[in-house]
Amino acid sequence: MSDFVSLERRGSVAVVTVNNPPVNALGAGVRQGLVSCLEQANADTEIDIIVLLGSGRTFPAGADITEFGKPMADPDLHEVILAYENSDKPVLAAIHGTALGGGLELALGCDYRCGSAAARVGLPEVKLGILPGAGGTQRLPRLIGVEAALKIIVSGDFVAAGKALDLGILDHIVDGDLVDGAVAHARSLIDDGKPRRRIRDMNAEAPPELFDTFEKSIARRARGYLAPFKCIEAIRGAVELAFEEGMANERKLFIECMKSPQSAGQRHMFFAERQSAKVPDVPKDTPLRTIAGAGVIGAGTMGGGIAMNFANAGIPVTIIDIDQQGLDKGLGIIEGNYAATVKKGRISQAEMDQRMGLISGALDYAALAQVDIVVEAAFEGMSLKKEIFGKLDAVCKPGAILATNTSTLDVNEIAAATGRPQDVIGTHFFSPANVMKLLEIVRAGKTSAEVIATTMKLARKINKVGVLVGVCDGFVGNRMLHGYFNEAQRLLEEGALPHQVDKVLYDWGFAMGPLAVMDLAGIDVGWRIRKEKAASRDPDQPYSSTVADRLAEMGRFGQKTRRGWYIYQEGSRVPQPDPEVEDMLKQVSKEKGITRRDITDQEIFKRCMYQLVNIGADILDEGIAMRSGDIDVIYVYGYGFPVFRGGPMFYAERVGLKQVYDDIAKFHEIHGVTWRPSALLKRLAEEGKGFNDL
Ligand code: CAA
């Protein structure tokens, strides 16, 4: 017995139960308890089979990630699994919740595995930048075949119990109470005289070309990643090497991955994402409001995408638009999106019908009288937003959450247009809103804790990663993006070309380079906003136009006009360099008196990346973001920042804030005001500290 693992006798069946909430991670205490309970069960002459399970919500969901990078206390997980594999008496793993990583590997060291119908299994290590390091790459292919194991291990995706049964990961599904069912099943294994079954004694076979073919099939998706390819290499070892050698090979590859900066970045993201759900001044027990019905203002692309999120989560939603035509068009686009998903086989026709059934349209705000939340997704414009919020204030029931999807405007000012600013919050979705995982949740000065807690919970329900931020122009993501885009343009004025800038960032791991992103988003969008702002600007601070404005003036609005920073062939999204743009850039340089020069890839990289970091540091300093990890989560989930780099702030910490600051200070000397170093960055650099020390 230990604090973490208990042993109970049920007739001749020993039940070993792991008890280490919340997810029964296999920390040192659990590992020790597992071995000692096994020894006791084996020593007990009355026992003829052992059942291994987890208490609470799950079978062990993996190794304890917080132990990574530190010396491992004995016994290590290998030794534990070997002890179960070599147990004198047969062992049945009984799985509920999620048997993941080291948890599933432990179960694979057992003779048999049963599970509840709602159980899920998986080897998600690849998502932490590592590979299953406790025999998973050797045992799973032996048990279920190489191709199926490749798919599971390289994707890291969870497998539901029914499929796990089909594949042979589970041998039996338990109905009703897991412990009773598992004990009865264990008894039947003995009564039926089922033989011992060690997976290590099985063979893994595959045609040699399978691995190359598989590698090619993931090449695009896994671009820049290390771990997926190391997983494949380890699984190849299961086919080509004897078990012990395959295990040694897995160990070697595991350590290589574990020591990689990629794994450090991905592990940082794992914890940063979970941390971002916590708001220090909004305690866990803050009362939550029920969200059983929603409204969306605006049937445009954004509004439609937002409405789909509600319908996907089973929440009925009413979309309001100003005219029937707009409404019909918006509903038609939603239907088309769902139909495309059905065609791809991702949802069934019945699911589509059910979701469409939850979406209705109306022209009159009165249709929103009973909803629990309204998300306004109308055009950006303060007077329009104020008018809408005034109307919502008049029709919505008390306690309804009034949210705005604005990406730039002051949520405090919008809230002030109502008599209930405590119920007003920003919910900044990213386009396409039904796909992108990020939700920037903007807390205004008077937003209540209840409204924050409910909106954060809602984010999870609609399958988003919600990050709470404060009010400023562009909030966190777009404010940083602004500096990054502008720097990319300054590089163009100084001598770089669009494809050179984009290639540097793309090769580093970004989903797209900054100029390709601008083409996708539409060059005209920023141009119009800048013009509007320029009109209301202080005349003493004249507006200095950007090179993107010049592009817009040429009618080059990006992909939508098939011309932007690049030229696009009819029906293609592949950017091609365009000499007309190069000519325009040369002309702009000339007009500004800039002598164009060769700019190195390293300079391009640093100038784009450090803009993000410098503005990110200002944002932290101002308290607009609560933690540097929140900024990283925003960039990875909303802006195509490579997860294996851990986010811009994490990346800067790895480089060293002193080094980053010195470079920024140098850029400041050369390029002036746009490189004013963040005071926080300066202070941390001088004190030898990191963002995490805050
Ligand atoms: N180690 C340590 N802590 C863990 C953990 C782990 N393996 N898995 C989850 N936690 C912690 C989380 O950090 C979180 O802590 P806080 O409440 O303090 O934030 C808490 O458990 C609950 O986690 P979630 O908020 O994620 O809860 P959930 O119900 O949404 O999801 C889960 C549960 C599906 C298990 C999810 O936590 C998860 O995917 N965990 C990671 C699983 C994993 O990657 N396992 C492999 C580990 S690596 C390994 O095993 C290596 C090897 O081969 C030896």
Account of the 3D structure:
By secondary structure, the protein is α/β, with parallel strands linked by helices. The protein contains 28 helices and 17 strands. The strands form three sheets. An eight-stranded mixed β-sheet has the order 12-11-10-13-14-15-16-17, sandwiched between helices. Strands 1-2-3-4-6-9 form a six-stranded mixed β-sheet, sandwiched between helices. The longest helix has 21 residues, at 601-621. The radius of gyration is 28 Å and the shape is globular. The model has no long low-confidence stretch (mean pLDDT 95). Bound molecules: acetoacetyl-coenzyme A (CAA). Acetoacetyl-coenzyme A (CAA) binds at residues 22-23, 25, 61-66, 77, 98, 100-102, 105, 124-125, 128, 132-134, 274.
Could you give the topology of this structure?
Elements: E1 5-10, E2 13-18, H1 28-43, E3 49-54, H2 77-85, E4 91-95, E5 98-100, H3 102-108, E6 112-116, E7 120-122, H4 136-144, H5 146-155, E8 159-160, H6 161-167, E9 172-174, H7 178-191, H8 209-218, H9 227-240, H10 243-258, H11 261-276, E10 294-297, H12 301-312, E11 317-320, H13 324-343, H14 349-357, E12 359-362, E13 373-376, H15 382-395, E14 401-404, H16 411-415, E15 424-429, E16 438-442, H17 449-461, E17 465-469, H18 477-494, H19 498-508, H20 514-521, H21 523-535, H22 547-553, H23 579-591, H24 601-621, H25 628-638, H26 648-655, H27 657-671, H28 679-687
Parallel strand pairs: 2-3, 3-4, 4-6, 5-7, 6-9, 10-11, 10-13, 11-12, 13-14, 14-15, 16-17
Antiparallel strand pairs: 1-2, 7-8, 15-16
